[in-house]
Each structure stands twice: as structure tokens, then as C-alpha cells.
Amino acid sequence: MKKLLILGAGTGGTIMANLLYKRLDRREWSISVIDKDKAHYYQPGFLFIPFGPYTKEQITEEKSKFIPRGVEFILSDIERIDPHNSAVLLQDGKRIPYDFLIVATGVEIMPDETPGLREGRGDTIFDFYTIDGSTALSQKLSNFKSGTIAVHINEMSIKCPVAPLEFAFLCDWFFCRKKIRDDVEIVFVTLLSGAFTKAVAAIELGSLLEERNIKIVTDFSAERVKRGRFRGQFREASPSLFSL
Q1: Neighbours of 59 (CB within 10 A)
Q2: What is the CB neighbour count within 10 angstroms for residue 68?
Q3: Is the pLDDT of residue 165 over 70?
Q4: Could you report the per-residue pLDDT of 102-123, keeping only the tens digit for each?
Q5: Higher confidence at residue 110 or residue 50?
Q6: Nearest to 230, CA basis, from 138, 142, 114, 137
Q7: Domains of the chain, with CATH numbers?
Q8: For residue 163, what are the contacts with CB-CB under 8 A and spacing of at least 6?
Q9: The whole model's pTM is what?
């Protein structure tokens, strides 16, 4: 019997497991999925957790729930792939052979690539691309009274190019609802030359930012972050909150 091995039980790995389980002859193929985490997160919900519409519990399910019963689910860290011998080595030393391998491990943010970005995380620096980041940001925003929030796209590509813009607009809505919008400055900082990647969308979205009194700083990529301060053309700003 041939072995299909899928690394990652996120959206991509889960879809492939379900699709191929239906299409492959079960007399000829066995399917296994390996992932290091039990929890599956509905990642688009990360954007909304900081503002209250969703909670962590509402976007969390067990990954095993989405894996077909006839597919083996292995909960383990992966040490490495051995392509020469068609095998995957798990952290506990176990070796899993395969005839066909699908790598669907997803992507992770890398704050360490920008000096200083790791420092202050959870205090003045946050992200909304992880469950920990979005829940920490929820706590921070609930007590935020006044100051500057810089929403910064520092590098491309990112999981969802429009998400930082959505976050900026949600900030405007959130603080208007709390009746403290006049006390909060929102700055959208991007390495792009406009609000978005496409020219027509950049013009329209740029106008929407202006209408909502959200400042935009273009063609800017942070060289480093010094505890709430950018180094570069935006150096005069001292954000109270810095979000990716």
C-alpha cells in the first residue's frame, strides 16, 4: 500500500486530506496528517478579536474534528524531512515513510528580522496574525484611552494584504464607538507607494483613509524599532501602540 503524508493540519492540509481521501482508492493508499498543535484557528477571525466581535473560543476548534475518520492524525513536532529516503523524522525520533508528500505547514511572522521588533511585544508592539497577538491586543485596546496607533506594513508579502487597512478602519470604528476618537491618532505606515498594491484601489482606499482622519505614511520600511519609536522618515512620531 502506498503512503500519502501531509505535513500541517491547517486549512490547506485539511482540505487536501478531505479531498484526496475521497478521490484515492483506499485499497491502494493510506493517508496520514502530521501537525504539532491540536487547535485549529479560523485565522480571518484574528483581525476581529482585538475589537470584540469574536473571542478566542469562537474561532477555535480541534483539528482532529476536520480530519476524515479514515485518515491517521499524528500530533507531533517535525524534526526534518529526509527526501533522499522518502521519510519524515519526528521530534521523538520516529520515522514516517512516504510515497507522496504534501507540505502544508503554512507561514509564520518573523519579527526578529527587524531589530527591536521583538522587544516590547505584548506591551507597545503587537500583531494580529497570531492568536496570542490578537488576544493580547484585545486586552490592550480595551484600556487604551489616548495616544498614537501606528499600523505598519514593514515587509511583503503578508498573509492578507488588505488586513492592515481593515485593522486601521476598525480602529477608527472602535474608538468612535467608545467616543474617544479625537484622543487617538491613527497612522497607516506602508512600504508601498500608496494605500494598496493596485493603483485604482490605492486611490479609493487612500481617500477613505483621509475621510476618516487616518494619516498615511508611504514608501517607509522600518530599519529598526526603538521602544515605540521608528528610525527613518517617521522618526518624529512616538506611537503609543505599534501593530503589524
Answers
A1: 19
A2: 15
A3: yes
A4: 999 988 888 888 888 888 788 8
A5: 50
A6: 114
A7: 2-103 (3.50.50.60), 111-243 (3.50.50.60)
A8: 47, 128, 129
A9: 0.83
